[in-house]
């Protein structure tokens, strides 16, 4: 029992006996970082700068065990603080001393250090744990995917709870060293560069490093039997891709798509600026889910993305996120348009590049193919609500809004913004409001009306608004561009 319910007077007396009087008003860190969409996600009172995960995973039993060492700094006077985590914890140390800990809520680990922590203190947190990730649920779901030969952690907006303790919100980015021992013949795939591997007594250890800040949901782990391919982009970024050995009929289509990673990344740099990381790739594990995810430097692709044949469009989508989502992350989950509107628009630019329909034609088609009473228009991409965070409208209406912006301010300003934004907020976070302000600054135009009409109203902009925005206003008869099928085949890119 680590949470004591005692009268305020008694609390003051007991603290006076154990810590300096100045510490009497040290308070618990909040159990959430303050995101209204997900009030319990992340935590308050500290900021993590680095995760060191030294793990061991046995595929036969789905057992993950190891030690997480977190380097953090307190942002308030703390009597205790939370991490988000589901596996079974055996010991926690804070600053070297054993700390007490308790469970609360759906995924909270409450840690009470022996001595309260003053604001601004660097602190090292060590968590020893073990567990069967597939046996753990929060809110009735699991984001740990069992495969025939291992397991995978990849989902949005949460995946870390099943494999490491964290401050699970994009606002708290950190660097990572992920070291995982797996039985010989099995591989452990994660983000970043493969620093080294070593083998001993039937186990092989893979040491991965992410040297640039990374949001917790963008950290990934996949254990299984993979075929690994390596290469380099034109600009020299090393590429490591991994494919489950048992992809069956989809193996060829998966490779024919993901092996385009280097080429697509080089192409995207023309729009978004230099690639921001020193590692690149993608992986296709044998999971039964259907989506893909922009896990940093190494996107996750479900085999189902390639069930209908090769699809480079989904690779374009996930790699576009490396700038729009990973390099510049949402400040809150309401800002999801910053991720998905732009990743979808990159697919439209790819369609244009491939001669399969221009972004304008795709925008016209989106506008024309949804009647005014279609629930599609009820979703506000600029603030969709947690239930509609990954609604197709955030993607398609979101990309339509970008075409409207392009028409309004012209190609020169528009593409200056596309390239300037990732540099302006590199390795940080930003809001939809920040984007509007930046677009107004670069274009020298007031864009409040445009953003309101196309991103924030729960209704279809009328024909006059469409005409004014350069969008074909016919309610029918706009033929789908050739790329439409491949683009819509990626519509399950997120979601659980
Ligand atoms: Zn996406």
Automatic annotation (TrEMBL):
Keyword terms, alphabetized: Hydrolase, Metal-binding, Metalloprotease, Protease, Signal, Zinc
Domain Aminopeptidase N-like N-terminal: 49-218
CDD domains on file: M1_APN_like
Names of the cofactor(s): Zn(2+)
UniProt-listed Enzyme Commission number(s): 3.4.11.2
Signal peptide: 1-23
Domain Peptidase M1 membrane alanine aminopeptidase stretches: 310-454
Entries under Pfam families matching the protein: Peptidase_M1, Peptidase_M1_N
Catalytic reactions of this protein: Release of an N-terminal amino acid, Xaa-|-Yaa- from a peptide, amide or arylamide. Xaa is preferably Ala, but may be most amino acids including Pro (slow action). When a terminal hydrophobic residue is followed by a prolyl residue, the two may be released as an intact Xaa-Pro dipeptide
Class of enzymatic activity (EC top level): hydrolase
GO terms of biological process kind: proteolysis
A GO term, aspect molecular function: alanyl aminopeptidase activity
The family this protein is said to belong to: Belongs to the peptidase M1 family.
Name of the protein described by the UniProt record: Aminopeptidase N
């Amino acid at each position: 029992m680590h949470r004591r319910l005692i009268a305020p007077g008694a609390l003051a007396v007991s603290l006076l006996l154990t810590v300096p009087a100045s510490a009497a008003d040290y308070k618990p860190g909040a159990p959430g970082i303050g995101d209204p969409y997900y009030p319990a996600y992340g935590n308050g009172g500290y900021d993590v700068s680095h995760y060191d995960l030294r793990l061991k995973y046995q595929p036969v039993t789905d057992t993950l065990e190891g030690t997480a060492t977190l380097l953090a700094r307190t942002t308030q006077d703390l009597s205790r603080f939370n991490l988000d985590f589901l596996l079974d914890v055996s010991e926690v140390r804070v600053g070297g001393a054993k700390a007490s800990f308790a469970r609360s809520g759906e995924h909270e680990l409450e840690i009470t250090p022996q001595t309260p922590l003053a604001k601004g203190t660097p602190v090292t947190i060590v968590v020893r744990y073990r567990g069967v990730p597939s046996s753990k649920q929060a809110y009735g779901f699991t984001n740990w995917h069992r495969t025939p030969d291992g397991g995978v952690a990849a989902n949005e907006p949460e995946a870390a709870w099943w494999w490491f303790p964290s401050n699970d919100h994009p606002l708290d980015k950190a660097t990572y060293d992920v070291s995982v021992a797996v039985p010989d013949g099995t591989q452990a795939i994660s983000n970043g560069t493969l620093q080294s591997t070593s083998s001993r007594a039937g186990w092989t250890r893979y040491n991965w490093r992410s040297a640039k800040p990374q949001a917790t949901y963008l950290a990934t782990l996949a254990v299984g039997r993979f075929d690994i391919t390596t290469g380099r982009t034109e600009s020299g970024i090393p590429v490591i891709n991994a494919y489950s050995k048992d992809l069956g009929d989809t193996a060829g289509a998966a490779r024919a798509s993901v092996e385009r990673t280097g080429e697509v990344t080089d192409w995207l740099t023309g729009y978004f600026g230099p690639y921001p990381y020193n590692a690149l790739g993608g992986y296709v594990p044998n999971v039964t889910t259907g989506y893909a995810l922009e896990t940093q430097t190494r996107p996750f692709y479900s085999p189902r993305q390639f069930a209908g044949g090769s699809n480079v469009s989904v690779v374009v989508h996930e790699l576009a996120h490396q700038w729009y989502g990973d390099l510049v992350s949402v400040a809150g989950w309401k800002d999801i348009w910053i991720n998905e509107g732009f990743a979808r628009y990159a697919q439209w630019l790819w369609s244009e590049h491939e001669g399969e329909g221009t972004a304008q034609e795709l925008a016209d088609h989106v506008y024309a193919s949804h009647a005014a009473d279609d629930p599609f228009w009820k979703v506000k991409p600029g603030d969709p609500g947690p239930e509609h965070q990954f609604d197709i409208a955030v993607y398609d209406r979101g990309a339509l809004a970008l075409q409207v912006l392009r028409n309004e301010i012209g190609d020169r300003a528009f593409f200056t913004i596309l390239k300037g934004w990732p540099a302006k907020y590199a390795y940080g976070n930003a809001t939809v409001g920040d984007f509007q302000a930046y677009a107004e600054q670069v274009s020298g135009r007031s864009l409040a009306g445009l953003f309101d009409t196309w991103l924030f109203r729960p209704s279809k902009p009328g024909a006059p608004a469409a005409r004014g925005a350069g969008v074909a206003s016919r309610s029918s008869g706009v033929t789908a561009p050739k790329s439409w099928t491949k683009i819509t085949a990626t519509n399950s890119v997120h979601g659980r």
